[in-house]
Amino acid sequence: MNREIRFKETQKFTQWWLWLIILAPIIIIALRFISSYLYLFGVIPAAESNNTSMTWIAHKGSLVELLPHFFYLLTVLFLILLKLKVVVTEKEINIRHLLFYKKTIKLSDVIEHRITNYDFVGYGIRKTQKYGTVYNVKGKQGISLTLKNGDKYLIGSQRPQELLKSISNNS
């Protein structure tokens, strides 16, 4: 069944300040690794090196000691792969978030839809009193939906006017 796609948007976490916070520990760890190996291989004389705290890597090398770094790198990889994908067809809105979460909303169930400028509600999938279920990756604009059964949704978008138009075409 090939359906007409009216709107398609994929958003990722591209906020520079978020990545600065996330990557700062990696940069610090990398610099300490480099400094430690330079010390171990004699490039930096012992008298000039004040960074011997990371020499445990070469001396112990225990997997248990490397586990926190491994999990941190997995978290960074997870954030790199995260995205919010919204596709509107002539019959439904498909929302895909967090690599594995999928939600479909039938356009025939939508009784109200509008562009909403909102305060920061967090990233990811959230339940809020004011907006209902929120799907957000960045920004402060999106489309608020109210369904026939009273459920509310807020879909964050960098192109809210186009998203609204694609949903409005059903009416």
Explain this structure to me?
Helices cover 33% and strands 33% of the residues. The protein is an alpha+beta fold. The strands form two sheets. The protein has a five-stranded mixed beta sheet, covered by helices on one side.
Number of helices: 4
Counting DSSP E segments of at least 2 residues, the number of strands comes to 9
Q: Helix- and strand-based class?
A: alpha+beta
Instruction: Give the mean pLDDT.
Output: 81
Adjacency order of strands in the biggest sheet: 5-8-9-7-6
Helix-residue proportion = 25-40%
Following the backbone from N to C, one meets helices and strands in this order, namely EHHHEEEEEEEEH
- Radius of gyration, in Å, reads 23 Å
Regions with little confidence, pLDDT below 50 for 5+ residues = 54-59
Largest sheet: 5 strands, mixed
Residue share in β-strands: 25-35%
General shape: elongated
Query: What is the first-to-last residue Cα distance?
Result: 22 Å
Sequence-ordered SSE layout with sheet pairings:
Blueprint: E1 5-12, H1 16-40, H2 56-59, H3 63-81, E2 83-89, E3 92-97, E4 101-106, E5 110-117, E6 124-128, E7 132-136, E8 141-147, E9 152-156, H4 160-168
Quick structural overview:
By secondary structure, the chain is an alpha+beta fold. The protein contains four helices and nine strands. The strands form two sheets. Strands 5-8-9-7-6 form a five-stranded mixed β-sheet, with helices on one face.
Comma- or semicolon-separated keywords:
4-stranded antiparallel beta sheet; 33% strand; elongated; 5-stranded mixed beta sheet; alpha+beta; 4 helices
